[in-house]
Structure prediction request, 1059 residues.
Amino acid sequence: MKTFKLGGIHPDENKISAQQPIEVVPIPKTVFIPVSQHLGAPAKPIVVKGDIVKTGQLIAKGEGFISANVHSSVSGTVQKVDEIVDYSGYRRLSIVIDTDGDEWVDTIDKTTELKKECTLDSKAIIDRINEMGIVGMGGATFPSNVKLNVPQGKKAEYLLINGVECEPYLTSDHRLMLEKGREIMVGITILMKALNVNKAMIGIENNKKDAFQLMTDLAKEFPGITVHTLKVKYPQGAEKQLIKALINREVPSGKLPIEVGCVVHNVGTAFAVYEAIQKNKPLFERIVTVTGKSIKKPSNLLARVGTSISDLISMTGGLPDDSGKIISGGPMMGRALSNADAPITKGTSGILVMTEKESKRVPVLSCIRCGRCVTVCAMGLEPFLLAKLAENQVWEEAEAEHIMDCMECGSCQYTCPSGRPLVDHIRVGKNEVAKIIRTRKN
Amino acid sequence: MNSTILIAVVAMFAIGITAAIILYIVAQKFKVIENPLIDEVVELLPGAHCGGCGYPGCRALAETMVKRGSLENLNCPVGGKEVMGQIAALMGLVAEEKEPMIAVLRCSGSKSHAPDKVLYEGASSCSFLHQLNVGESGCPYGCLGQGDCVFSCKFDAIAIDDKTGLPVIDNEKCVACGACVKACPRQIIEIRFKGKKDRRIYVSCVNKEKGGIARKNCTVACIGCGKCVKICPFEAITMENNLAYIDFEKCKLCRKCVKECPTNAIAELNFPVIKEKAQPNTEVQA
Amino acid sequence: MKLITVSGSPHLHGDLSVRKIMWGVIFAMLPAMLVSIWYFGISALNTTLVAVATCVAAEYLMKKYLLNEDPSVSDGSAIITGMLLSFNVPSSLPWWQTMLGGIFAIGVAKIAFGGLGKNLFNPALVGRIFLLISFPVNMTTWPVPLSNRWVLVDALTGPTPLGQLKEGLANGETLAALKLHLPAYQDMFMGQIGGSLGEVSAIAIILGGLYMLYRGIITWHIPAAYLLTVAAFTGILYMIDPTHFIDPIFHLLAGGLMLGAFFMATDMVTSPMTHKGMLVFGVGCGVLTVAIRNWGVYPEGVSFAILIMNAFVPLINKGFKPKRFGEVAHG
Prediction:
């Protein structure tokens, strides 16, 4: 079975919502749509208070090379364009809309029949993806059209599709593959056309045997697409580790996957691309797994962007009394919320409610130099050293020790017997080193 | 005497003399010619190498002083008036009279004034918490209490008070070197005049949000009402971005603004207590 | 409802803890301890208890009053130092000397460097060397196994196999003649020989070592590198001159090599952090051990070899870094 060799851990999978079919969340009374739901420059609002908008209408335009459009997820009236408290407690510019019915923009094809043929050429596909505000649905939210623009001098050989979902608890990609497998396949062929490649490989972790079986059967109808099963190891879903496992190539430090001839997209992104190209539908809704050991009904919910997280939690039986942390994303790389009324964005793959017992961090002791963090680091770094350098603010040496290669997967902190907050310190270090690199470039 | 002992003594003597000669020659050959005045100035300087003067270490400051031949715009905040006076005397110059300064924490968001809305667990790093989240009190401008300032202080002049959760700056130990100012990710600490009799008045808030929003998170926030600006007889207070600021050069310590502030956002330190009305905000600083 | 918590990711932690590791090591040392009590009787138990009690008390007091830290000793590392120290001394060592060794081991080798995780040298070995240099007679008087079990003060003493070997060769005896007097391999394997508490029984140590490997407390790199190097080096010497150098099996079973390879050299704090570094460390220990045994003054070289290699560990850590993912090849 394919896998990546360096490092990795195996936390408890806890895929308790894996058998729950996707449910649609009723449209909320108000939605809060942030103008920045992606990496890069925030989009610029093009509506003002009082404007009437339809579902799927463009309400904020992407600015700059790395940016994305934002579309309304409901129909109604714009209540305000103002700073709203987001998951981190800080205020971010958002467009607040009071819902009124669910009238869609008439250019969107609302039918659900599968449409296999794509008549657009590569450039038109990439432009449409940009227009429809498609971003990476795995959680990184990188604008997808930027990835598809292969820079001069480089050539794409493979399209790799990430169906791994290595984070514990999350099952949205799993359900998407089971319920929308064909659409995903068509989306993949469209992406292959955009990239001018004839080989696509889908990687699925071995704990989703039903999805693997289904996708393998479907792949027979689509030439060029192969499906591969991967050993269950965190962080198999990380881009570089996926490339290593599927085609055994290592992306050089500091470079992008196109350097080794491939582009990686999440299955959710492939599905969004299908809807964008074949149905002219912009990205304004996504599947969110709402789960947790004390959640009464762990579910996979199809929610409109801008819905409050508290609405989703009440759909699954309400916030349990013993809740300790509410996390947007998975438990290894997700962000803990301080505000449960924060909205769902394009990159919210899951909401995990951790019990108080689970949330308590273990007491911190001094480093016992056991070396386990070095053994599990998937990037071959020395986390104990990076954390120590960052703590003592020795930035130049931290940069020399390749702190910028760290992808903050958390394997080191998970393993550390002394419970040291390695990733916390490394994050501070990366921030400072990034500042130094920026000033050096200028 | 035994011949073994004799040989040993002579041998050690010879080695010693040879080594001494070699060392002397090398010391002379590689001698660095320097103005001896620099060494004398270094002797007078405190030797903390804290960088508070803006130069990397006491020696660098001494070199600058001697090379320039003047003390203009140069000051050792640690040594203060006394040391600068001695250096001036040594160099045959007149030292500038500098007003003593001290670091001031412009936030009173203690655990009682700005109660926790969320609990933080993790590395004790203000820079980290600042990036991660707005903070336990919910105020995006307020003190996070994780101690980056404490870590940066080389003079042991700052420590976190467990009850309030805020740092306390020691009046005697602080030398206004500015390390804590740089360390604070929210620029809450400012270097201000120490004041006559160590008395100082400052707006103990850096929140730039609209008053209603600011007050929700902290009961002693500056709400930008402007009453202090109007009442100050010396025009020392300005208002910008919903936040008042007292210019320490203009402030004459009359305390009118302290009484006037409806949220008690203005702090006065080391003044005698007035008995007539509600106590001003003095709980958080030493 | 209670406030929710906010922290950086990851929000999960594995179930590994320092306490689990330390208690795993203590459990792995039990076979050796039980064997030592079987062969050397209550004086063995006494020595172990004194050493452990001294180390725990010393750590508690020093942490509280010298380091001004939370004086928790529940992580078990002081107990391990005490047990390992007692494994390195003869059962007949006067109790006050054991106590001094414990205080020195914890105080100088551990607390003076800053406490858990900050020491450069293995504390138990430092304690042993201190005792060896300060009380050479007591530290080289080895009780004979099985004969002194019920007395605290031993009457019968004898040499260790390595001691016999070194003395014999120094006196001009031939290896062939010596071999008739040296203990049989079974005795060396089971432990019915003279020696310190922990070093006599190879089988007890190997069982403990295998348990730690199974639990994932240690990896195979250091013990394998150490033992294979010793076997290879002594094997080469034996092939060159079998009349002066004894065979590798004797070397593997004799002295504190097994104890050193599985319990002392693998001490996490004082050994390298990467697998490559660990192999280098093991090889270095092996070479030095054999060199000291054959050409040094002392009959046993394990303690010195490990301490010398401990000093090189920071250098090894710097020189042998793990292979990075996507490492750009140096042009």
